Amino acid sequence: MSATAITASQMKTVIASMCDTIEEQKEYLCDLDGAIGDGDHGVSMAIAFGLVKQKLPEWPAQDVGSLLKDVALTLTNAVGGAMGPLFGTFFLKQAVASMGKHEVNLSDLVRMFQAAEKGIRDIGKANEGDKTLLDTLAPAVRALERAERDGKPLDVALGDLETAAREGWQSTRDLVAKTGRARRLGERTIGHLDPGATSCYFVLRAYVDAVRAD
Predict the structure, then answer these.
(1) Which range marks the domain in which residue 13 is found?
(2) What's the distance, Cα to Cα, between the start and end of the chain in Å?
């Protein structure tokens, strides 16, 4: 991909990378969820992203926003529980922020990720430190904002995003779950990575890897 922007066509490659990564990590996500949840997180995510990959060739790459909207609607309808609305919101808010754009640059991505973070905060009613996917997403967005302020190129900025996302994801091991089904376990959730934060990290890592590989 170009050093300054990601086109709508190239975004399809990014989405396919996310789908493949979730499928590859399905069993690991189920194992994590089995420790503090129902044990089906990986299966649910793989089904949802598998449906996205199945439909992806049918979606025209006219603009980034329309493509991400298709992803959002598919995920929202395919995943039960909290993850469908949360990941659906992630992509839908990015879609709204990029509607009509044939390509997105770093400034666009910052606005897209900020909108996604706000949307998830609004519907999830969670904060950083609650052992949720926000512990992965929020520091990643802050890193992207800093990269924009510092005038870094797109690929470097995305590298910063991935590093911050990984550190945030790993931080959930030491946190007590304060929302969702895991909340009932209280301090017994300490020592376990949060499944939602983990799947969020895999989605963001796949995003970065696809940009760098093209």
Answers:
(1) 5-213
(2) 5
